[in-house]
Amino acid sequence: SLAIVTLSMLFMLFLGLYLYRHDQIGAQSFFASLVLQSSTFGPFLALANLSTGLSSTLGAARRVLTLFDEEVTVRENEKGACPESSAMAVENLAFAYDDQAILESLSLSFPEGKITGIEGRSGCGKSTLLRLLMRFFDPQAGTARLGDENLKDVQTDFLRTKQSVVLQESVLFTDTLRNNLLAAKPDATDKEIRRACKKASIDTFIDSLDQGLDTMLAESGSSLSSGEKQRIGLARAFLHDGDILLLDEPTSNLDALNEGTILRALDEEAKGKTVVLISHRKGTLSFADHIIEMEELHSHAVQ
Ligand SMILES: Nc1ncnc2c1ncn2[C@@H]1O[C@H](COP(=O)(O)OP(=O)(O)OP(=O)(O)O)[C@@H](O)[C@H]1O
Ligand SMILES: [Mg+2]
Measured in angstroms, how far is the CA atom of residue 26 from the centroid of ligand 2? Predict the structure, then answer.
C-alpha cells in the first residue's frame, strides 16, 4: 500500500508539472491537486492496515467468548436463607478437583466466637477447605453449613457480607491503593481505611509513599513486596469487618515485628467472631482457642 501511495504521488507530481509547463493549469491548481490527493490517502491506508488490526481484534474476541462459554461451577443463591448464627461446620465432606480426591469424610465444626487453628502438611487441602467454606465450590458429598443452613441454601450475597477473608495470595488490581482497599467495602470513609491499615500494620508504608493512598499499583501488585501485599489483604479483611474471619496463612510473609502487631490486632478483632486460622507458624497458631491437625488425603482430622 505504501508503494501505491508513493507511485501515485509521483505520478500526480509529474502530471501536474507537465500540465503546468504547458500552461494548462496554474500554480494554485497544481498545489491544490497535490494537497487534495495526499489527503485521500488516510482512509486508504486505514483500510490497508485493517488486516493487522483485525487478527488481534479477532484474538481478543475469541478470549472474551471463551470466558462467556465457561461453565458456572457454583450458581449464586439470590433468595436463600440469611442465618443469624456465625458458627460454621462441615459434615462428612468429600471434595475432589476433577478426579483428584482432596478431602473425604471430613467433619469439623468452627464454633461462634472461637478461633479455630488449622495446621497440616502443604497440599493436604487446607486452602481447599477454606474455599468450600466460602462456597467457591460445592462439595461432591456431605455438607458445609452456616448455622443450621446448608451453604447451598444461604443467600450468596449475605455469605459474602458475613465473611471476611485473607487468601494465601492477595489479589490486587491495577488501580490505586485506595480502590484496591475499597474492594472490601465500597462505601468506606478515609478514616475507616486508615484505621484498617493501622491494624494491618501497613499505615507507615502507605504514609511513606509520595501519593499515599492514591498511589497506582502495578499489574497484580508486582510493585509491592509479598509482605506488603499480604498486609493489604489483611487491611481489606479488617475493613470488611464480617462476623466470620477466614485467614489462610495471614502471616507467612511477615517479619516477627509485623506479625506481632497483626496478631494483637487480630486478637482484638476476633472477639465474638468465628475465626478460621490456617497457619504453619507456631507463633500465629498459639492465638487459636483450639487447633485442628489436618492430615494428608482424607485422613481423620483430630479436633
Ligand atoms: N484449582 C485446583 N485444581 C486442581 N488441583 C488443585 C487446585 N487447587 C489445589 N489443587 C490441589 O489440591 C491439593 C490441596 O491444595 P490446597 O491448596 O488445598 O493445599 P494446602 O493445604 O492449602 O497447601 P499449602 O499449605 O501449601 O497452602 C494440592 O495437591 C493441590 O495441588
Ligand atoms: Mg494453602
Answer: 82
Helix/strand/coil for 119 = strand
Minimal CA–CA distance to 140: which of 98, 168, 171, 174? 98
CA distances to 216, 235, 241 from 195, in Å: 21, 9, 12
CATH code of the domain covering residue 223: 3.40.50.300
Query: Do 125 and 177 fall into the same domain?
Result: yes
Structural domain range at position 101: 88-294
Both 21 and 115 in a single domain?
no
Ligand 1 atom at shortest distance from the alpha carbon of 130: 18
Cell numbers placing 198: 493501622
* pLDDT, block means (10 residues), the chain with 303 residues: 90 94 92 91 85 88 95 89 92 90 90 92 91 93 93 94 92 92 92 92 90 89 88 93 92 84 84 91 88 72 46
Ligand 2 ion: residues within 5 Å (CB) = 126-127, 168
Q: How far apart are alpha carbons 135 and 119 in whole angstroms? A: 21
> What letter would DSSP give residue 214?
G
Non-local CB neighbours of 143 within 8 Å, separated by 6+ positions: 90, 91, 92, 93, 150, 151
- Does one domain contain both 37 and 164? no
Q: Do 177 and 273 fall into the same domain?
A: yes
